Fold:
Amino acid sequence: MLECYRRSFGDAYQEVVRIIRERDQSLTGRPAKSTASIAEKLLRESTRLSQVQDIAGCRIVVTDVMEQERVVASLRADFPSPSVIDRREKPSHGYRAVHIVAEISGKPVEIQVRTSLQHMWANLSEKCSDVLDPTIKYGGGPVEWRNFLGKISKSVEAYEEFEKKHSEAVTAHEVFEKSHSKAVTAHEVFEKSHSKAVTAHEVLENAAAELLEHRLPEHKVQEIVEEMEASRLRIKDLAEKMEASRLRTENLSEKLVAQWNVNAELLDKAITWLDERKGEKQ
Amino acid sequence: MIFVIEYNRSKGNKVTILDFDDSKRREAEDARLEIELDVTRKKVDHEVVLLEAASKDALHRTHLRYFADLPGILKSARDQKERPGRREEKGSRIDSR
Structure:
């Protein structure tokens, strides 16, 4: 009976996978939850089988939070009124990810979107639950592991904040670069016009003795000179803004790397700790 | 490709992995059911799951838990390629650019 129920999600699952793959998005699909996982969920959450939203599902692992945002936005647009559970805003015992539940012909299909770091954390938590204590995943288990997973989850959160800020700074810098490039082009056009005007002015000056009425008016030359000066000031201003933006990007980049190193040190400690336990067993 | 994995939860290692061509969905589902009935009969705490991925590498990336032990997961996270900045020679820390 359970098997029939699980297989009834097949068409909805296939449709969700087809739509996501059409966008060239790599994913791993799981057409049906295992019996053991379903049984555990029903017991743990005192819920009914018909209320379980992740009988069928799939998982997408992306590089960073910016890509996660893009993928989530695209999935929101692809499916009519999906439920979005943002576990970054409300982590579940340290678990961070975005889950989207799409409904096709009344059948829910859960799409998990995780960044590499969120995925690393989830793998750690699940593995700890498998081999150390099944309650770790739900906030239980030995206190040292709870603290360890909690620390890593917080570190991942902090890293994501820097990722966002860094990305914003890079975008702002690119905008300045484009503006600066446009201003330089405009300045070059002014320079050419000025050069032509000066040449014309000289030619006309030479001819002034004979044709005074054709002389290029002084105010016209002055106008061009003023435009050139304004253009020069604009370039100077943009260059200053660009420099400030560059410094900000550099500063954020340093913070981002420092945060990564916090993650790396936490992982190093955990590896050393595990190696020590292994040594003690031998 | 379709993969059927039997995973020993308490030991944290996979017992079996079968792979099927995408066109053999029905066979894969039957294989999963057969293994699941078998582990239920034997009353062992094994998880049996059917997964679909573009390749075995893609499967490893999204479901590393079935393939790596705890230090392996930590090391894989530690050696992630997506991290910012450049790596030092030994890869233990990174410097900003």
User: Anything to note?
Assistant: Chain B is about 35% helix and 25% strand. The beta strands of chain B are 2-8, 13-20, 46-52, 86-87, 94-95.
